[in-house]
Amino acid sequence: MQAFLIFAIGGFVAQLVDGSLGMAYGVTSTTILLTAGLTPALASASVHLAELGTSVASGLSHWKFGNVDWKVVLTLGVPGAVGAFLGATALSSISTEAAEPWMSTILLALGIYVLLRFAIRPLRRRQLTGVSPKLLAPLGLVAGFVDATGGGGWGPVATPTLLSTGRVEPRKVVGSVDTSEFLIAAAASLGFLTSLSHQQLSWSTVGALLVGGVIAAPLAAYLVRIVPMRLIGVGAGGLIVLTNARTLIKNFDLPAPSPTVIYAAIVVAWLAALAYTVRVILAERRELDGVDEQSAEAVVR
């Protein structure tokens, strides 16, 4: 019972982060399961089976709050499902360790770009023209494969890439990526159930992750609806930078105290960017309120 509660809390936290920023459910949940002693394949399989429920709950919640672009969902999700199935069936024989540093470097660069873009030069409504299928389809294929083989990665690959284009509203990027994740979870689960017939899945672990994630989904969808797009972008960018910096530090095995110094610098810079963004948002709202008051006075006169 204690293990069930721990995994349920882990699923809740993972879905709250994922539903708010469009990433990190798989990364967070898989980390918990690996720490608990599951093999990489079983951990990834358990997470994807749980995502069959959490992604439905998250998708419905985002749809209710108007956070979903169905064109993005289908164009990104269908190739993603193909990549996820291939990744799941290949996990037992293909190692992604060699590619991990390169992928983390790319994601780190995207995270820095997203953070700076939203903190310093936010998107304008006139720029939100949509993303070409020529980008969405290959992006989905790669993100799906990485997600299945790494126990997570759909959000960290897809979300920053779409945010960096500046052509889709951030809350709809988050909502669409989260909604399309059902297709990836279904395809990956099918691949794992086919290839892991000789290994024992823990359905209580899957259930715990599912319960926690389903409870968190509506709250996460509501938060992404009311939180300003700039704040979401800065939050997502900082999370991407911190996560992938950790991966690179582990791969290069940097000696102490270098990792601590790097983590501290990233956190301080991230908090400073968040504080600056909040300050700018409040200033813009005060300015908008002032304009509205002047307009109201002009009408009265």
From TrEMBL:
Belongs to the 4-toluene sulfonate uptake permease (TSUP) (TC 2.A.102) family. The chain crosses the membrane at residues 72-95, 101-120, 201-224, 231-249, 261-282. The keyword Membrane applies. Keywords: Cell membrane, Membrane, Transmembrane, Transmembrane helix. GO terms for cellular component: plasma membrane. It is found in: Cell membrane; Membrane. Pfam families: TauE. This is Probable membrane transporter protein. It is a multi-pass membrane protein. InterPro entries: TM_pro_TauE-like (IPR002781), TSUP/Inactive_protease-like (IPR051598).
